Amino acid sequence: MKIKLLAFDFDGTILEEGMVIPESTRERLDMVKDLGIKISTASGRKLEDQFRILDLNLLGDKSGYPHFLIVDESRIYLLDGKGYTPLESWNDKVSNEWRELYPLAEEILLEEIEGLKIKGEEVSIHIIGETALIRNMVAMRFSSIEKAKEYEKYLSEKLKSINSPFWCNRNFSLVQILPPSAGKGNTVLALSRYLNISPNEVLVIGDSGNDVDMLDGRYGFRSATVSNADPEIKDVVKKNGGYVARNPISRGIIEIIDELILKNL
């Protein structure tokens, strides 16, 4: 089955130091675009951050891709003649769901942070209030990635045990609480349905904890990761029959494109 949609994470996956996508990697992406394959980001970054990264790397309006942006792990923007415009049917669905559930999410976040501080943990609020309503998540920051990994496992089980409507993931040292429809996997699936593309025609690439739900096969995507990815991410991709590159970051992206797209022409 040929790939019709390529979706990739930014940080740790394609961005080199200084938020740069090297020219050699952009050339491979140009080739993907010229084959008629749609390209999307799949990022937890804000819309403004993604615009800044695209401008820095001569992408977006300048190059005609990415055709889509996935923002805050939950919202979709489409590139058209006016720039990037929201896919309102999906974005409104997630936003309305989140606004209804938000008070409970904030309550859980504050209670968890209070309990952690009583135990002497170094933890702080990262996303709450109006920012949380815009970004469809609340989040707390830990002193280290290892602390965040440990807590994310605990919180995931707790949310299940209390039949909470929420789920959680980890983004580096952040632990995020999200509504049911949010997450990269859900959002890539929504985009593929909008494009009438089968999940097994979608290739997703990521490297960290908040990429698991698009890499682990639950939605039927083909998955890949770069050599610098977290060990548990490599395991997730391998279990899903995906591809683990021998090279890191942007060179890994080139390798993945060569092996999974260009070799199959």
Report on the architecture of this protein:
With 265 residues, this protein is α/β, with parallel strands linked by helices. It has 2 domains: 5-73 and 183-264, Rossmann fold, CATH 3.40.50; 95-178. The protein is 43% helix and 20% strand. The chain has 9 helices and 12 strands. The chain has helices spanning 23-34, 47-56, 88-118, 129-135, 145-161, 184-194, 212-215, 231-239, 249-260; strands at 5-8, 38-41, 68-71, 75-80, 83-86, 123-127, 138-142, 167-171, 174-178, 202-205, 222-225, 243-244. Helix 1 runs parallel beside helix 9 and helix 3 (88-118) crosses helix 4 (129-135). The longest helix has 31 residues, at 88-118.
Question: How are the SSEs placed, and which strands pair?
Answer:
Layout: E1 5-8, H1 23-34, E2 38-41, H2 47-56, E3 68-71, E4 75-80, E5 83-86, H3 88-118, E6 123-127, H4 129-135, E7 138-142, H5 145-161, E8 167-171, E9 174-178, H6 184-194, E10 202-205, H7 212-215, E11 222-225, H8 231-239, E12 243-244, H9 249-260
Parallel strand pairs: 1-2, 1-10, 10-11, 11-12
Antiparallel strand pairs: 3-4, 4-5, 6-7, 7-9, 8-9
Helix pairs in contact: 1-9, 3-4
Short précis:
The chain is α/β, with parallel strands linked by helices and 265 residues long. The chain has helices at 23-34, 47-56, 88-118, 129-135, 145-161, 184-194, 212-215, 231-239, 249-260; strands at residues 5-8, 38-41, 68-71, 75-80, 83-86, 123-127, 138-142, 167-171, 174-178, 202-205, 222-225, 243-244. 43% of the residues lie in helices and 20% in strands.
